[in-house]
Amino acid sequence: MELIGDLPARPLDPAACFNQHGDPSDDGVSARSFRGPVAVVLPAGGCGERMGLSTPKQFCKLLDRPLISYTIHAFERIKWIEAVIVVVAEQHVELMKSIIQKYNHEKTQWCVGGLTRHRSIFNGLSVFVDDKFMECHLTKPKVVIIHDAVRPFVNEDILLKIATAANDHGAAGAIRPLVSTVIATNSEHFLDHSLERSKYRASEMPQAFLFDTIYKAYQKCTEYDFEYGTECLHLVLSYCNTQAKLIEGPPTLWKVTYKQDLFAAESLIKETLSQNVCVITDVDQEALQLGHCLKKMLMTQHMDVEVISAEYGKKKLCIPHVSSQESYNIIIIGNTELQEKQEVIDVIANSSMTLLYPMVLILVYISLPESTPFSKKLDEPSAIRRLAKEAKHRNILVYGLLVNYTKDSEELNESLENMCFISKSLMKDRNSALTGQLLVV
Ligand SMILES: Nc1ccn([C@@H]2O[C@H](COP(=O)(O)OP(=O)(O)OP(=O)(O)O)[C@@H](O)[C@H]2O)c(=O)n1
Ligand SMILES: O=C(CO)[C@H](O)[C@H](O)COP(=O)(O)O
């Protein structure tokens, strides 16, 4: 997947790293950065007919969080985005309100949409100017971005290019090369003609406009436009004579449309979350050795790994650091008491990181030749299960790994390789059904 190669070494936020492409000067967009203030309208009032589910796709869950929340977060995390208006169908207002509250979407407000996408967008724009929305206290922005709620992987780079171009030219939109050739059929369903693929582009989102331009276009457009139109850029061309600047966007701008797109979107999120890990080891020799060997091996798997060693009772002090690094994977190596691990879980849960993404916590136990075999400590696996069950409610996925530590370097190496592959796949799969299991390496 192209995404992997494009990831920055250590993303500040998983939402930030979906295809950070290129240099703003690549596509002729002014390098003078336009940084708002900008407002956003997210049409989310559709029913997702092509998805064929009873829940509209914008409310379908990815890693247990509604898709719409990912899109909102992608905008809210950008400083120069001032306000986000989500446009939803009347029957989903309560659901939307609960999502805004649960995920703490502080810049976001909602309004009710219309029967078509254009009607919904017009309602969203009206929030900034119509007296009936006075209580929203929103100032009309100079530039407004319009983005489908069902395109969750939009990043700051493309948004900045689009907003800057809209500021300079009145309108701008993201485009992508066509995947298939476009053909026209005749009334008997035979080929009439085909278009030369290289001359055409797919119009995607985001798009941005000078607010007054797009609002005027909607005020002037016809009932036919409202009913059948699919292109906002076309409206400003037809009704305001504004020719949009077109900017090539990354492939991750695609619109979640069919059921398979939900699987693809969730995989992309998991892939991104599994790119970095923080390993916290005990200070004894075996734990330190395992930690450093694991780091080397995970790095060959293209992961960004940081190792911190802390003595008994101090591990929870490492979590604020993990949280500032926005790492959603922690491996703790060492045989310290479960009470200590419980304290670490408490600190993670209180850090508010797990509000957005599930955290993976792998507890690595070391079985030393001279100590009581772990299999004889019957209470330990069930204690891990209990701990994991409680942690799952707090969006922390806890797994146990038991590593046989031996002086035989070949055997130890094999154990380490297994530990690396199992850890990597636990971080990548984020499988909640496996939490609480103690896997023997
Ligand atoms: N009356 C409508 C119809 C669509 N949209 C929104 O416009 C975006 C893009 O539309 P599309 O992908 O076509 O969504 P749906 O109309 O829901 O899907 P479908 O066409 O398969 O029914 C979506 O975020 C959708 O919720 C909207 O706000 N109001
Ligand atoms: O394609 C588009 C660009 O103009 C729009 O993003 C929009 O998704 C079209 O919506 P629909 O699929 O409902 O026609």
From TrEMBL:
Span of the signal peptide: none
Pathway: Protein modification; protein glycosylation
Catalytic activity: D-ribitol 5-phosphate + CTP + H(+) = CDP-L-ribitol + diphosphate; D-ribulose 5-phosphate + CTP + H(+) = CDP-D-ribulose + diphosphate; D-ribose 5-phosphate + CTP + H(+) = CDP-D-ribose + diphosphate
GO BP term, example: isoprenoid biosynthetic process
Lineage top rank: taxon: Eukaryota
UniProtKB keywords: Cytoplasm, Nucleotidyltransferase, Transferase
Coiled-coil segments on the chain, per record: none
Main location: cytoplasm
Cellular-component GO terms for this entry: cytosol
Subcellular location: Cytoplasm, Cytosol
Gene3D superfamilies, sorted: Spore Coat Polysaccharide Biosynthesis Protein SpsA, Chain A
EC number: 2.7.7.40
MF (Gene Ontology): D-ribitol-5-phosphate cytidylyltransferase activity
Pfam families for this protein: IspD, ISPD_C
Domain D-ribitol-5-phosphate cytidylyltransferase C-terminal positions: 275-418
Family membership noted in the UniProt record: Belongs to the IspD/TarI cytidylyltransferase family. IspD subfamily.
Purpose: Cytidylyltransferase required for protein O-linked mannosylation. Catalyzes the formation of CDP-ribitol nucleotide sugar from D-ribitol 5-phosphate. CDP-ribitol is a substrate of FKTN during the biosynthesis of the phosphorylated O-mannosyl trisaccharide (N-acetylgalactosamine-beta-3-N-acetylglucosamine-beta-4-(phosphate-6-)mannose), a carbohydrate structure present in alpha-dystroglycan (DAG1), which is required for binding laminin G-like domain-containing extracellular proteins with high affinity.
Quaternary structure annotation from Swiss-Prot or TrEMBL: Homodimer.
Protein name as it appears in the record: D-ribitol-5-phosphate cytidylyltransferase
Organism of origin: Erpetoichthys calabaricus (Rope fish)
Lineage, top ranks: Eukaryota, Metazoa, Chordata, Craniata, Vertebrata
Gene behind this protein: CRPPA
